[in-house]
Amino acid sequence: MQARMLNNRYELLDILGQGGMATVYRGRDTRLGRPVAIKLLHSQYVGDNQFLQRFEHEAQAAAGLSAHPNIVDVYDVGQDNGVPYIVMELVQGRDLSTLIGQEAPLPIDRTIHIAEQAADALDYAHQRGFVHRDVKPQNIMVGPNDEVKITDFGIAKSALSTAVTQAGMTFGTADYISPEQAQGITATAQSDIYGLGIVVYEMLTKHLPFSGDNPMAVALQQIQNAPPPLSRWNPTLPPNLERIVLTALAKDPRQRPASAKAFATMLREYRTARGQETQVAPVVKGSPVQPSQAATYQVPQAPRVQTGRTNTAPLPAVTPVQAVPRRVPPPVAPPLARRPEAHRGFPFGGLLLGIVLLGGLLGLAYVAFATPTLQDIFGSVAAPTIAALPSTVPATPAPSTAAPTSTSVVLIQLTDFVGRPEAAVRNALVNAGLVPDLPDAPRTDPVYERGIVVEQRPAPGTTLHKGDKVYLRISLGKETAVVPPTPVPTAAPTLPPLIALPDLSNQPGDTVLTALTQAGFRVNPIRQPSSSVAAGQVMSQSPAPGNYPPDTVITVTISQGDVIKFPAVIGTDLTRATQIIQATPNLSLTTVDLQGPDRLPNYNRYRPNQVVSATADGRAVVNGDLVSRTAQIVLGVRKP
Questions:
Q1: Are 299 and 376 in contact (CB under 8 A)?
Q2: What pLDDT score was predicted for residue 446?
Q3: DSSP H or E stretch at residue 627
Q4: Strand 435-437's sheet: what is its strand order?
Q5: In the structure, how many helices (H) and strands (E) does the chain have?
Q6: CB-count exposure of residue 285 (10 Å: 0-12, 13-18, 19+)
Q7: Are residue 434 and residue 506 in the same domain, yes or no?
């Protein structure tokens, strides 16, 4: 395109993207010599007050939030020849929609890194009274090092402003819209969390949870259908990450994370805990093994129990291994640690039992390692031959202060059992020499089936001795799960059922108005003349046929028939009245009725030849009344 200047300062170079309201250009600030992005309102909306208000609102919202590093910065706003524009930071990179299309499913750590930044930015906006209301990949820019910038606050809703939103108007994109927005209910911070949850779902799977032939079909699924598990599209995803994402997609806003910051915290803590997953290494208490010396065994990761399924495959069983005598003090059981409340129900890692053997004899010159054999959930892992160990042990300990006696010690590194069947966990613990215990009452769970472990103590990664207890809590199932509502600033209303709105064309208007009111809609009747629709019949409706929540305003336009307004002739003189009637199409003056003092009350109040009354087809009318185009018009006139 040919370069164009705005206000003799901003040069428009090429188009970066187009939307329904505006076009975004790559530009250059000639005064400061820096690249910029310029959003220019479409010319056809320049005279539309609603679009002008929305565009101005975007500039105000974005300018007020641009102090956050993950929200696009706004440099300037203005008008050129009456066309408004916004000058913004030019983000080097691509939008998240393009990234998903080219590279999804994205790695878990990269997905969390992007989602954390977006959640932090949304929380910043929410804390300042703004709800974005259109969170989607197209509005998330990803720059170098995956730095995130949220854009397009054009439909952001301020708690202090109602100018942009009309009653009953729904904003958002169907693929990412929250159930409450789809039903016309006011969006809250939890609505943005729902949209971000779908964005994370798409990054991890390259699929949207809902699809349909049209936006209405998708919106209805957002309201009514549970999202498919992410593992349907990406079976390698850990169940605990899946559970975090599905929590953000709860239909009831009160069951989603309490804030965008809380959602970001859940993702951060999951990423931190990932480093503790599924490794078994030899550990000798009191003699730390350096990473370069440790023999680490990778065990195939087995899928956990998913929603609606029960995994009955056996857990790893530990074969007996030769304990290595060494001098150690009597073992002390580690303190039990309950998981922090923020992690409860969101465990991490694969299921393994680590058996570690470090051998050595006091006074001898070498150490030999033995590799344990592990039985995987869906098969076996071949065990290498255990190296022979010296059998000679000094009968008397070497002189030392308070020297303990020689003992054989087997240390066991505990892994994550959450998501596994109780029976399989018990067998694995017993086979490993540990003691399963159930001190905590079972509880219902929205994800795991009955009989599945939902909590354990000590935490995964804890090193235990044979004979130590492992405490388990078991799920009662999800059928009767009761999730306590998460406190929110304002309680979200219960989502009402939808009501079917049929095609009302050519139906009797009065009957339609009554039926709509009884169904639970609010009715806005409008009556207009029509030369094609019979009087009293419905001409049009808004919105179109579909399913809508109660209290939706239904505008019904009803025909008044082939009528026109009676012209303003009463009060004029007869000559002028005749001219007006003759200039009105299809309307003709039939008779002039001259009235004297005997027929006209207050005769002296009127001027001679003044029109004092009128009838149309024998019915008295006044100026502005609707009359048939073919009506017989009679004018009452005061005699000269």
A1: yes
A2: 80
A3: strand 626-628
A4: 435-437, 469-474, 453-457
A5: 11, 32
A6: middle
A7: no
pLDDT band of residue 618 (cuts 50, 70, 90) is: confident
250, 263: one domain: yes
The DSSP-derived string for 170-213 is --S-TTT--HHHHTTPPP-HHHHHHHHHHHHHHHHHSS-S---S
Across-strand partners of 131?
Answer: 157
Domain boundary pick from 460, 484, 508 = 484
Residue 588 sits in a domain whose CATH number is: 3.30.10
Q: What contacts 24+ positions apart, CB below 8 Å, involve 360-367?
A: 360/324, 360/326, 361/325, 361/390, 361/392, 361/393, 361/394, 362/326, 362/327, 362/394, 362/397, 362/398, 362/406, 363/394, 363/398, 364/390, 364/392
- CA angle, residues 597, 599, 602, in degrees to nearest 5: 55
Dihedral over alpha carbons 243, 247, 248, 253 (to 10 degrees): 170
- The residue range of the domain holding 36 is 4-49+73-89
- 148, 167, 346, 406, 556 from 248: Cα distances, Å: 20, 27, 14, 55, 39
DSSP code of residue 621:
-
Number of structural domains (the chain) is 5
| Domain assignment present for 397 | no
Together in a domain, 196 and 255: yes
Q: Is residue 454 part of a domain?
A: yes
Asked if residue 568 and residue 555 are part of one domain, the reply reads no
pTM of this prediction?
A: 0.45
Q: Do both 139 and 127 map to the same domain?
A: yes
Give per-residue burial for 129-165: e unless 16+ CB within 10 Å, then b: ebbbbbbbbbbbbbeeeebbbbbbbbbbbbeeeeebb
Catalytic residues: 134
Whether residue 31 sits in one domain with residue 157: no
pLDDT in tens, 147-188: 999 987 654 454 433 333 333 334 457 899 999 988 888 889
Residues 250 and 137 in one domain: yes
Of 484, 513, 532, at which residue does a domain stop? Answer: 484
Strand partners of residue 616: 619, 633
Please tell me the distance from the alpha carbon of residue 234 to that of residue 382, in angstroms, as a whole number. Answer: 28
Q: What is the pLDDT of residues 336-379, one digit of tens each?
A: 333 333 333 333 333 322 332 333 333 333 333 333 322 332 23
216 and 98 in a single domain? The answer is yes
In three-state secondary structure terms, 586 is coil
Among residues 427, 480, 485, 424, the alpha carbon closest in space to that of 449 is found at 480
Per the prediction, the chain carries an average pLDDT of 74
Question: In sequence order, which residues have a C-beta less than 8 Å from that of residue 301 and are 6 or more positions away?
Answer: 278, 350
**Selection from 606, 622, 529 nearest residue 574 by Cα:** 606
Average pLDDT over residues 117-136: 91
Q: What is the CATH number of the domain that holds 319?
A: 3.30.10.20
* 33 found inside a domain: yes
